Structures are given as C-alpha cells and as structure tokens.
Amino acid sequence: MNVEEKYPEAEIIRVVQDNINAHTYGSFYERFEPEEVRKLCKKFEFHYTPKKASWLNMAEIEFSALSKQCLDRRIGDIEALRSEIKAWVEDRNAKRVKVKWRFTTRDAREKLRSHYSNVKN
Fold first, then answer.
1. Hey, what's the torsion of the CAs at 3, 64, 58, 9, to 10 degrees?
2. DSSP string covering 54-90
3. Fewest CB atoms within 10 Å of the CB: 31, 49, 109, 118?
4. Cα 3 from Cα 53, distance rounded (Å)
C-alpha cells in the first residue's frame, strides 16, 4: 500500500485500534524498508482503546448508525458530505444518544458454555 498515492492530501492518518502487541509502529519494520517506515511513522497516528473496555465496539456501532442514517444515499461532493455528517453528529449529540448494551453476562456465559467447560451460570 502506498499511502502517498492512496491518501495524497492526508497530513495525518489516525488509526483507532485495540492494544494487540502487533499494533505498533515497530510492526512496520516487518513489512517495509526503514526509509518507508520513517515516512509511515510520520503519517500515522495510533490511538489505542482501553484494555478493559469495549470502546472499539462502540465506535463500530456509531459508524454503523452513521452509515444507515446519514450515508445511505449518494452525496455529490465533499462539502455536502461534511455538512451532512456535521448535522447528523450535532443531532445525535443534542439527543444524547447512548449505546445500549443488550449482551448480558448471562448471555455471554450461555454463548461461551461450549468453549469454557468450567463456566457456571
């Protein structure tokens, strides 16, 4: 992947990811030459989700809602896209929309029963 070709106007590419030990700048060295790694490290900005929380799941839920509620049609240009997204975000924030978890501990224990023989209800 050539970042400069794919995203020529991007000054910074922000990546939200979990804390897996492979998700580091050092992992670039496994795939790219040192000169390319230096360029990538200047271009990418990693943001890690907390180890003990499901923040990435919440971000995915928000992106899904954005896609279904706002981006479900053709939007003709970048300024219109920005305007639509801004209006959607402002409306969602004004309504103080929250993620409502429906998967309970009991659900998890039931679903994972076959994987963990010592889990009790």
1. 20
2. -HHHHHHHHHHHHHHHTSSS---SHHHHHHHHHHHHH
3. 118
4. 30
Cβ contact 40:28 at 8 Å: yes
In the chain, where the domains are located: 3-53
* Residue in 97, 95, 75, 93 with CA at minimum distance from that of residue 84: 75
Residues across the chain: 121
**Residue 1 · residue 31 · CB < 8 Å:** no
The tens digit of pLDDT for each residue in 67-104 reads 999 999 999 999 999 999 999 999 999 999 987 777 77
Burial category of 56 from C-beta neighbours within 10 Å (exposed 0-12, middle 13-18, buried 19 and up): middle
